[in-house]
Design a protein that fits this description.
The chain contains 13 helices and 11 strands. Helix 4 (104-114) packs across helix 5. With 326 residues, it is α/β, with parallel strands linked by helices. A 9-stranded mixed sheet has the order 3-2-1-4-5-6-11-9-10, with helices on both faces. The chain has helices at 15-27, 42-55, 79-82, 104-114, 127-135, 164-168, 170-177, 188-191, 198-205, 210-230, 238-247, 277-280, 311-323, and strands at 6-11, 29-35, 63-65, 118-122, 143-149, 183-186, 195-196, 235-236, 252-261, 272-275, 303-309. Helix 5 (127-135) links the parallel strand 4 and strand 5 (143-149). Bound molecules: beta-D-ribofuranose (BDR) and calcium ion. Beta-D-ribofuranose is lined by residues 14, 16-17, 39, 78, 81, 123-124, 149, 157, 163-165, 188, 238-239.
Length: 326
Amino acid sequence: MVEKQKVIMDCDPGHDDAFALMLAIQHLDVLGITTIGGNCSLENVTANALKILEVIERPDIGVYPGHSRPLSSELVTAPQFHGESGMDGPVLPEPKIKAQNTHAVDFIVETLKSTDDVIIIPTAPLTNIAAALNRAPEIASRIKEICLMGGSVTFGNWTPAAEFNIFVDPEAAYRVFNSGVPIKMAGVNFTRQCAITETHRDRIMMIPTKTAKFAAELIDFFMNASKEAAYLSVATLHDACAAAWVINSELVTSVPMRIDIELKGEYTRGMTVCDYRHLRCEDPEIDLSNHPTMKFRGRNPNAEGALRLDFTGFMGLLYETLRNYP
Ligand code: BDR
Ligand code: CA
């Protein structure tokens, strides 16, 4: 049997974080879940992570609470999309399983020191990851890759220029993108292709598992909230795309690019400034990702920016996953 890829999930559940967790826990070897204040308070997102583990009956996975706010600014939350609890919709009892006493940053540092080839999948502001790199810079060379949901190759969602996760803690994102760790960026230019309609929701509801019912209830709330807050008629499963990318890289088309984080701009703070000019000066039919003569006009790439999602393939993976849970 092929060994599952070892990962740490760093998240702020979060409707779409819940989908990332459900996918990752079934298809990858999740060493632990670290939480971070983002969509909602640290306390709420930690409780939400524990509730998800109870629904899918995986109380063996540890949940490690991390930072409650960004490195150097105030926390911004997103109740208009995720409700007051951070995961409104499904009615669930208070979780019986408890969070670990170890801080998320300690867990990340210790795990990376003792375990080879770990991928980190952050689906929230990058505060915990940046704090871990600041605490123990030597872990950078131990991380196989960071496959994150955040940023955008094109426009933002929280501001015209910035996506929410990067906007909340741009200083942390700056630290991560300049760490030398191979980065994969599932930005909103790409994750918005993961748009769940009512038809998908109805198909999920027909899957006879309590996890599928939970998933459909998450979608119901998220779809309505997205309608009211952003005039969107779909539920966009941003975070699930980062997990899916690690599970099956064939679902994603990406290109290498230099990505810098804007820290100062009056209108652009938190923007991921993506240099992919090399794509514009060549024949678009040529797959430039492995092109031997590809020349970068700016600085060398530090990331893979996702451009296209095989959405049909993604939905197949999601349906299968929901069928195989209790
Ligand atoms: C990101 O922001 C959060 O609200 C979602 O959970 C996702 O991680 C999308 O911009
Ligand atoms: Ca999230």
